[in-house]
User: Which sequence fits this backbone?
């Protein structure tokens, strides 16, 4: 069915949505609506954070500077392209479950849990540290959602989260953290088991 609209139509004044965000349409995939709602909600959180990490990689790719400029410029773009693939995988899983995927930047900014970096450039140590924190946040929520999905019988979501999102983020953390090896800047806090900035004092 085609819809004809005059060019001066103000779409903001129209009810144009075919499905409301936060709902799930019927899908005959032998999974209860309640289970699909839970998975879709969690997947949209992982998606919003993945889109933010993706954009952070491009920001750092453009704003890289210093003696490691070239290698970081290339590494950040490689990881960006891999995060782009994860964004599509996550979004299409949400649609597969009958959900509505978050998509536009203002909506992603409202949902993401990753703290917003300044617009201006930061040095490479801070860039790498921000990336490690973002990856670890995504890994933690991905692992938790994967367990929930498995417990509720959503094996497809569990498989996608573990085999693609979790493993890719863990792999990228290896490359990012090794850039800081030997610098004494980012060290592992054994008690909290979190990356911390070491004091320069
Ligand atoms: Fe580029």
Assistant:
């Amino acid at each position: 069915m085609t819809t004809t609209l005059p060019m001066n139509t103000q779409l903001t004044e129209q009810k144009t949505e075919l499905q409301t965000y936060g709902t799930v349409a019927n899908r005959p995939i032998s999974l209860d609506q309640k289970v699909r709602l839970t998975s879709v909600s969690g997947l949209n959180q992982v998606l919003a954070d993945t889109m933010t990490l993706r954009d952070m990689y491009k920001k750092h790719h453009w704003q890289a500077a210093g003696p490691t400029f070239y290698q970081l410029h290339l590494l950040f773009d490689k990881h960006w392209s891999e995060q782009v693939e994860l964004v599509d995988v996550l979004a299409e899983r949400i649609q597969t479950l009958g959900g509505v995927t978050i998509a536009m930047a203002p909506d992603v900014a409202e949902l993401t849990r990753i703290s917003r970096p300044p617009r201006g450039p930061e040095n490479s140590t801070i860039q790498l540290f921000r990336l490690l924190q973002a990856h670890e946040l995504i890994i933690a929520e991905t692992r938790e959602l994967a367990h929930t999905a498995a417990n509720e019988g959503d094996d497809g979501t569990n498989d996608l989260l573990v085999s693609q999102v979790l493993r890719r983020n863990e792999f990228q953390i290896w490359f990012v953290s090794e850039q800081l090896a030997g610098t004494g800047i980012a060290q592992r806090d054994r008690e909290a088991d979190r990356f911390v900035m070491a004091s320069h004092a």
User: Anything to note?
Assistant: The mean pLDDT is 92. The longest strand covers residues 186-189.
